[in-house]
Each structure stands twice: as structure tokens, then as C-alpha cells.
Design a protein that fits this description.
With 185 residues, the protein is α+β, with helices and mostly antiparallel strands. It contains 6 helices and 6 strands; from the N terminus they run βαββββααβααα. It folds into 2 domains: 98 residues, Alpha-Beta Plaits (2-Layer Sandwich); 84 residues, no CATH class.
């Protein structure tokens, strides 16, 4: 089985942010009861690398495509989406990503060409190892009394968020010449 991560992006109507966030917390809470749920995180709009991003993003992971589909076709999700609809404008963008592959697409051309898998694996490890180490160092004592599953859920949600929006973009930007060396543009 291979874990599946979904990135959902939505534009929220101005002034509706607190209500939307409450609904999203409820949707994420409902997802926790589903088989194969690995974690989710609501990422609020922010200014990333000089680009004003006004979209809300949800990163949600399941242990398999089958378990993700059960969640996606569930009445609980449908009710949550119906509750969120009054606060959203425009279309919802849903992208399914395998691991962190979406960060490793060729910078040019119409057809993306990824670097060799071993380079992607090396850069991914280079990002994950220090991120996990720092999170355990910073939160280890605080999380010691927590049940193991709760500790793993929190750490993995934090790692996914940090890797997706901070670490992987930074590493791929810094290591771009090495990642794409020998790849025709």
C-alpha cells in the first residue's frame, strides 16, 4: 500500500474566514474516524516567497487510494462540503500528489520532466531528517505523555506541512542546478 496525499485549495469569501475555518475543523475531525486516515492540516493564506496567496489549503493523507475514495464518497464529507459551500467563491482545486513529487517537476517546457528518482529521494531525505529531528527535539518532552498514535499523527502532520510549504520548496530552489543537471530543458 502507498500513502496518498491530497491538496485541496479554496478561495474563501472576504469576511467568511472564521466560519470557513470552523467548518474545515469539523470536516477534518470527521475524517479522523475513517479507516486509513493519516492526518490533515488546514493552511491559512499567507505570503510565500513574495507571492500573495489568498487561498486556503488543506493537506490530507490516507494510507491508500481505496481508503481515500471511501472518505471522498462518504456522507460525512458531503455534509461538510455542503456546510462550507456558502463561504467559498470560485472553484475548488483538488490535486492528488504522490509523496512530494509535485515539488520535483522540471522548471521549463510543456511536459514536466522529473529529475532521477534517486536525486528526489536524496533531497527528500535531506529535508525530512532535519525536520523530524528538530520537531522531536522541540516537542519531544511535551509529547512524551501522549499516546504513540497521537504523537505520530501530530509529528507527521507538522512534517507534511513544513515539507510542503517550507523545506521542499527551499531545497528544490537551492539544489535546482544539481537536480536538473543533464536534463534537457
Amino acid at each position: 500500500m502507498q500513502a496518498v496525499t491530497v491538496l485541496i485549495s479554496r478561495q474563501v469569501k472576504p469576511g467568511c474566514e472564521p466560519a470557513f475555518e470552523r467548518v474545515m475543523d469539523q470536516i477534518i475531525g470527521a475524517a479522523t474516524a475513517f479507516k486509513g486516515y493519516l492526518g490533515a492540516q488546514l493552511v491559512r493564506p499567507g505570503d510565500e516567497e513574495g507571492v500573495n496567496d489568498s487561498l486556503y489549503h488543506v493537506v490530507m493523507a490516507f494510507d491508500s487510494e481505496a481508503n481515500l475514495k471511501v472518505w471522498q464518497h462518504s456522507p460525512a464529507r458531503a455534509l461538510g462540503l455542503a456546510a462550507a459551500a456558502p463561504y467559498i467563491e470560485g472553484h475548488t482545486l483538488v490535486r492528488q500528489v504522490s509523496g512530494l513529487a509535485h515539488w520535483f517537476q522540471s522548471p521549463g517546457g510543456t511536459k514536466p520532466v522529473a529529475p532521477p528518482r534517486w536525486k528526489v529521494a536524496a533531497v527528500t531525505w535531506l529535508g525530512i531528517f532535519p525536520t523530524v529531528y528538530l520537531l522531536f527535539w522541540a516537542l519531544g518532552d511535551l509529547l512524551t505523555p501522549w499516546p504513540l498514535v497521537a504523537r505520530i499523527m501530530l509529528i507527521t502532520v507538522l512534517v507534511v506541512g513544513l515539507m510542503t510549504w517550507v523545506v521542499a520548496p527551499t531545497l528544490t530552489r537551492l539544489l535546482k542546478p544539481w537536480l536538473y543537471a543533464g536534463i534537457p530543458k
